[in-house]
């Protein structure tokens, strides 16, 4: 018996989930809504789903068992609460939102409802990331260096700080999450952001074109994150962990792992499809009625969001903030 799935929001990121779910025998997409009716119709044609008139119409527990909420972070409203209170299992894209009070309220409702829930930190599912986590168990880095450079999202909303949260909250969140997943919880962050290029060339937006974040972690590790979403000629997304007798380097968004110590200097590249692995794990977890195999819960994703929002606030207040 296949699980009936609804989609709210069928933009670029949702298409990756849809293609993954098509490969999973026990999953059937039956309901779709998007504010862009044309996009919804195209997605429905490729899946055999019905286009619904509203997001709330998708959240009909008599039609669906689970929902993928892939709307932008500013456009979530109370969708997660509705899904949870109606007993609908929930997959939601990162980042979870732009206000921690709202996210914590949703977290409580989701946990109280007892539904299976997962958040789109797909890189956790890579075998390279899992190998790095296993290697780092019992080892502590003294320094972490991360960076993400590349281009901007084409959507106008993405360039508005109050709608996207900026590059750190929306995209570099993957590197922040990977640091948390591998090395533990953040203790303090301090950030500086700039708009030198955007002020000269893209004045209509309010997000930053570059950021530099320093941080400490609960166990004493210190580190930095450097990012830019206006890097036309160079892109990279890496996390490096330096220990007294080891070096771990996850590059290419985690797809390539290098481990160096006195016994090895090895590099491996993943051939996995993290979106598929993430979707398959979610569907399997629902079928087995257990949250155990989900690698990023709503609570976990909320902690990652808290780091990035604190960094934004630190920049405004010109001071370090504790988490």
Automatic annotation (TrEMBL):
Ranges for domain Gfo/Idh/MocA-like oxidoreductase N-terminal: 3-120
Residue ranges of every copy of the GFO/IDH/MocA-like oxidoreductase domain listed in the record: 149-243
Highest taxon of source: Bacteria
InterPro entries: Gfo/Idh/MocA-like_OxRdtase_N, Gfo/Idh/MocA_Oxidoreductase, GFO_IDH_MocA-like_dom, NAD(P)-bd_dom_sf
Protein name per its UniProtKB record: Gfo/Idh/MocA family protein
């Amino acid at each position: 018996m296949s699980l009936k799935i609804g989609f709210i929001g069928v933009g670029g990121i949702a298409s990756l989930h849809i293609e993954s779910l098509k490969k999973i025998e026990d999953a059937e997409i039956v309901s779709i809504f998007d504010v862009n009716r044309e996009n919804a119709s195209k997605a429905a044609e490729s899946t055999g789903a019905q286009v619904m008139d509203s997001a709330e119409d998708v959240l009909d527990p008599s039609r669906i068992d689970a929902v993928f909420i892939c709307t932008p972070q500013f456009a979530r409203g109370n969708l997660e609460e509705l899904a949870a209170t109606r007993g609908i299992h929930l997959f939601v894209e990162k980042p979870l939102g732009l206000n921690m009070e709202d996210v914590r309220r949703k977290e409580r409702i989701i946990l109280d409802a007892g539904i299976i829930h997962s958040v789109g930190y797909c890189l956790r599912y890579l075998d390279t990331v899992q190998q790095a986590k296993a290697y780092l168990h019992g080892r502590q880095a003294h320094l972490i260096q991360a960076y993400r450079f590349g281009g901007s999202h084409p959507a106008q909303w993405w360039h508005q700080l109050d709608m996207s949260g900026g590059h750190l909250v929306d995209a570099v969140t993957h590197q922040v999450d990977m640091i948390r997943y591998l090395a533990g919880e953040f203790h303090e962050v301090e950030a500086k952001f700039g708009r030198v290029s955007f002020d000269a060339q893209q004045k209509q937006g309010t997000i930053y074109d570059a950021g530099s974040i320093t941080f400490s972690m609960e166990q004493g590790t210190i580190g930095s994150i450097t990012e830019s979403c206006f890097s036309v000629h160079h892109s990279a997304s890496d996390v490096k962990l330096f220990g007294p007798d080891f070096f771990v380097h996850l590059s290419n968004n985690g797809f390539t792992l290098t481990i160096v110590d006195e016994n090895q200097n090895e590099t491996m590249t993943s051939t996995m499809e993290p979106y598929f692995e993430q979707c398959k794990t979610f569907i399997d977890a629902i079928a087995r009625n257990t949250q155990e195999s989900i690698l990023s819960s709503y609570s976990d994703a909320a902690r990652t969001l808290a780091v990035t929002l604190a960094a934004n606030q630190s920049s405004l207040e010109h001071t370090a903030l504790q988490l």
